[in-house]
Amino acid sequence: MYKPYQTPVDRAFPDIETPEPRVSAFMVLMAKLFGRLYLFLFLGIARIFLRGKRYFFDSFDRALRGKSRCIIAVRHPYGGEPQMLSWYILFKFRALAKRGGYTLARAPHTVFVYGYEVVRWGGAVARLVMPRLGAMPVHHTKVDTRGMSRIYKAITEGPYPLSIAPEGQVSYTAEAIPRLEQGAIRIGFHAAERLQRSGSDCPVEILPVSAHFRYGSWGKFALKLLIGKIEKYTGLRKKNRAAGNLSLEESVLRCREHILAANERRYGLQVDTAQPYAERVNAVMDAAMNHAEMVLGLRKGGGEVIDRMYHLRQICWDRIYLPGTNGLDDFSSVERSIADLRAGEAWHAGRHLEVVDFSWYFRNPPPAQDAPLHTRIEYVQNLWDFANRTMGGAYANRTNIFPRCVIFRAAPPINLSARLPEYRTDRKALVRKVMDELKDAYLDCIEKEATGDNKD
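Now predict its structure.
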């Protein structure tokens, strides 16, 4: 299967059209039958647990009875959260809710919002399955009236809760909140206004859900193997062995320094180990972004790093998959060759953007030797990803340690409809306030998982 961002691109493609999102009973059945096997073989998921069950059950019960509209604001630290949560809700949730005293009005499901680019790098299987499970695409940087109309309709008319990742993309850490985007909150308030104008008293609620991986005894051995792999690729295996019995932190720091210095030399930056690590990473990101713009033939942009990266990434995809183009047969040989060259340049520019994308999240210090196993594994996986992106890889080339368990923890829902009077008075201030509440809810989930608080 050909997947751009895994295989170098040397030609342009027609635009990809996916079917209008709908929930197909046949695809739901296939997800139930084969989803568990997929989760184990491809995502390494041994078990899934729910915490904060009463918040899950209450929210789904009201939403499926049409008494509320629910937006599940699910964190996205690892990358497989939509598949994991979707399968669990489809296959396990109803029976679990019944044991908890809830008789759901209909078979539970949730429809996810995903980035427009996912079905492009995800391949034919993603294009087949996602729209038939009701998942809806949206652009990060383009005005997308059609996509937003679908989302508002899904919220205001139901019948299922809508799931969206407020982080905007994979954030690579479950133990902190690097950044949140305002989209989910703004969408929720706008949907609440629509419902109120239509005469409905149905409230719109945000259900915060956090995701956490945990590992068994195999994780310790797999962690050592992954560190050895990183040492091999950085050329530090012999040096680290010659240095004696290095701690995890010492080995990680050596490898991280090697990868960072390689990026600095790559972009013509001075390697200054006396400078703080985060400042050096910032300089690499800026240089990588400038290089991508140069490859694309664009002037240097401005604004926030992630927003600038989103904008350039969209340009890259638009040069690989030509928007509004159903076929290239009408292109002359000259036009086709130019389009192919531009697609190739966009792919290579994307290599630099992958460095920016990941490095923004990888500026925290390494964990201590006695840190929890899942924290050490997360950091070493990210260290490999730092090397992977430096070598031209992408998320699809990420190495993860299997098997693992995933915990989804829900926090108390946030009622947006009840705050519409305040929203009309000062929209920006209230959105910021609710964003802080959402962040606090996630931090509370993280703390409860850290302390082993399993009370519902």
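The CA atoms of residues 388 and 397 lie 7 Å apart.
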